[in-house]
């Protein structure tokens, strides 16, 4: 049987430390140790039901002078009382340390890795770890004595820039499920969220020293992007996979793959010039898509944002540096 008022009261009590936590604390860099001040306990639904049963047993035993009833009541109460300390000890002295947060594109998930160390000689059982804002995603872990585990949590991102890792909760109902012991941890770690690449981009503006040294060709060359179909385009270059995703009633129901052939020179992705024609986020998304296309074909390129000029290069590190610049574009230092 569910009691809405009781459930709301229990939720409010459980969430109260988090509210105080927000007031008192900022992201915590380095290793955090769960001491007595960081661990909170409250009876679970089963625990409150047991309290009610024990109260009924005690009143009944008192009215009818039942010695066996008193023995049963105090025995169960003693077991429940000991479980309070067991539940608290299951979290006490754990060492929490942030490990890494993968950079990702807006709209994708970042994998956050956290290290949980058990320095004691007693194993810790059934510790549920997850995000405070998404409790349904929590996972249960057992931690052997004097060892540590790596916890991986998926964090969904929505906007480019620096993404602060949110509050993590550690919950346990060990050993009898009568008591919930939990703690909050605010890791001092961030992930860099790149702009989401534009789905359909125009031809990459490949340029050389002085003259444009790349031309769009009907066949051969390197794939540079997808554009709307124009009369005279070869049917061999229709982008069937992208066409299948389009609404047949749309005005641009056909898309064409575009190829470029280049004879050398340096490719510079000029974000500043794009900003004159496009909104900031759209321009960033387009440049991000161009970077991925150029990396796919192992082509060297540079990046110009107005304040920064990154020389032409290629490779994973170069792509990561350019994407981070795009992610943090416009951010005040």
What can be said about this structure in brief?
The chain is of the alpha+beta class. Helix content is 31%, strand content 30%. Helix 2 (45-64) runs antiparallel to helix 3 and helix 6 (280-296) runs antiparallel to helix 7 (316-327).
Write out key terms for the chains shown.
333 residues; alpha+beta; five-stranded antiparallel β-sheet; 7 helices
Distance between the termini: 55 Å
How many β strands by DSSP?
A: 18
Query: Helix and strand succession?
Result: HEEHHEEEEEEEEEEEEHEEHHEEH
Enumerate the strands of the largest sheet in spatial order, edge to edge or round the barrel: 2-11-10-6-7
The class by helix and strand makeup works out as alpha+beta
Number of helices: 7
Low-confidence residue ranges: 208-220
3D architecture notes:
By secondary structure, the chain is of the alpha+beta class. Helix content is 31%, strand content 30%. The chain contains seven helices and 18 strands. The chain has helices at residues 4-24, 45-64, 67-89, 240-245, 271-274, 280-296, 316-327; strands at 32-33, 40-43, 95-101, 104-105, 109-118, 124-131, 139-143, 147-156, 161-164, 168-172, 179-185, 190-194, 214-217, 222-228, 255-262, 268-270, 301-304, 309-313. The strands form five sheets. The chain has a five-stranded antiparallel β-sheet with strand order 2-11-10-6-7, sandwiched between helices. The radius of gyration is 30 Å and the shape is elongated. It starts with a helix and ends in a 6-residue tail after the last helix.
